[in-house]
Structures are given as structure tokens and as C-alpha cells.
Write a structure and sequence with these properties.
This protein is α/β, with parallel strands linked by helices. It has one domain (7-220): TIM Barrel. The protein is built from eight helices and eight strands. Helix 4 links the parallel strand 4 (89-93) and strand 5 (113-118). Bound molecules: D-xylitol-5-phosphate (DX5) and zinc ion. The site of zinc ion (ZN) has 6 residues, from strand 2.
């Protein structure tokens, strides 16, 4: 069985907020596989970012699948608005949802992939009873809230744990978010990551296409 190539998901949080559509198009032209959109509520994390209208605007700007990461306390009442806006993957935090199994089922009923994100302090083992309902596991390698933070190295072990638990199955896809660059990316892929989210590495230094090509090279060489 061949392993599918890792997918690259640039995070628009690090792009110029006044030029999000242009950033989305640049990422698409530069070989991104998905666009990662960070939604923050000022409660679950100490920052506020995008609402559904911004997701809808990005949907109009790009054909890439939209991977929407909700850093929102009790996101249940908001998920339909983000799916209507064009989310293809909708990820909620394990730490932020009281009735997680019910919410995952609802997201899947809406024909959207249902993701669970775990903060650095949350072990993958706590997902045991919702594992089968999870299409997408987002392992945080920083505490969420801001781009540009240093990579948390224990995330590599967590990716290995998740990959072992998944065995030969295709799901959940294992994504990693925070501090991904050309040095951390190969270690994460070697541990079993399927999807790499990268914000500041892609958007904070020069051309997104060049940065995406560097990342691609780093995980395929
Ligand atoms: C952090 C966000 C990340 C962020 C990653 O809370 O969830 O998606 O944009 O940024 P970097 O890659 O700079 O750590
Ligand atoms: Zn994110």
C-alpha cells in the first residue's frame, strides 16, 4: 500500500488580513492542498479572528477545500453557519465542547468532515469513545491563539500515538498545527502526519509559492 503524499494547509491567520482573497489565490497557485482558516472567539483563546462571512469570501476566491478550525467555546450553535459558508472540514476543540459525540454527528450529517482538535495538554487517549466518529484529528503543536509560536516537540510523539491507534484505516486524517516549518515538517511526516498546517512559515517571509515548495521538498526528500 502506498502512503498518500502529505497535504499542505497554509493558515490564512498569518496572511495580510486586508488581502485574504489574494493570499488564498497565491496559496492555491503555489500548490496548497487545503486552506486552513482559524476562527477565534476571544473566550476559548485570547484572540478574535474570522466569522462565517470571511469564510464565504475565501470560498469565492479559491477552489481549494476549506479546513475551518474553530477555537470557540461551545461552538455548537455556530457550526451550521460555517458549513453554509463553505467549510469542507470543520474542527472543534475537545476541550471546548460538552456534547461532542452529538456535535460530530451533526457536522457529518451536513456532509462536512468532522474534526477534533486537541491542545498540547490533552492526550489522544481521551478521544477513545469518539474516535470512530472523528474524520480529522488536529494535533496542536502550540497552545492555540496566535501564529508564530515555537513548536512543541512532544507533538511528534502524539502524532505517533495517533497513527498507531489508527492502524491501517484511512481515518481520521492526522493533521498538525503550530510551528510547522521545513525543519519540523519532515519529523512530523515521519511520525505519521497526513496534513501540515503552516501559517507564519508560508506567509511571513516572501512568496507563499516558494515557501510551499520548500515545505513540499522537505517532506518528500
Ligand atoms: C494557532 C492556529 C494556527 C496558526 C499556526 O492557534 O491554530 O493555525 O495559524 O501558525 P504558525 O504556523 O505560525 O504556528
Ligand atoms: Zn489552526
Amino acid at each position: 500500500m502506498t502512503t498518500p503524499r502529505p497535504q499542505l494547509a497554509p493558515s490564512l491567520l498569518s496572511a495580510d488580513a486586508g488581502q485574504l482573497a489574494e493570499a488564498a489565490r497565491a496559496a492555491e497557485a503555489g500548490g496548497a492542498d487545503l486552506l486552513h482558516i482559524d476562527v477565534m472567539d476571544g473566550h476559548f483563546v485570547p484572540n478574535i479572528t474570522f466569522g462565517p462571512h470571511v469564510v464565504a469570501a475565501i470560498r469565492r476566491a479559491s477552489r481549494l477545500p476549506l479546513d475551518v478550525h474553530l477555537m470557540v467555546q461551545e461552538p455548537g450553535p455556530l457550526v451550521d453557519a460555517f458549513i453554509d459558508a463553505g467549510a469542507d472540514v470543520l474542527t472543534v476543540h475537545w476541550e471546548a465542547v460538552t456534547h461532542l459525540e452529538r456535535l460530530l454527528a451533526h457536522i457529518k450529517d451536513r456532509q462536512c468532515l468532522a474534526g477534533i482538535a486537541v491542545n498540547p495538554a490533552t492526550p489522544v487517549s481521551l478521544l477513545a469513545d469518539v474516535w470512530d466518529e472523528c474524520d480529522w484529528l488536529l494535533i496542536m503543536s502550540v497552545n492555540p491563539g496566535f501564529s508564530g509560536q515555537p513548536f512543541w516537540p512532544r507533538a511528534i510523539h502524539k502524532v505517533q500515538t495517533a497513527r498507531e491507534r489508527r492502524g491501517e484505516l484511512a481515518r481520521p486524517r492526522i493533521a498538525v498545527d503550530g510551528g510547522v516549518d521545513e525543519s519540523t515538517a519532515p519529523r512530523l511526516v515521519a511520525a505519521g502526519a497526513d496534513v501540515l498546517v503552516a501559517g507564519s512559515y508560508v506567509f511571513d517571509g516572501g512568496e507563499p509559492a516558494v515557501r510551499l515548495a520548500n515545505l513540499r521538498r522537505a517532506v518528500t526528500s
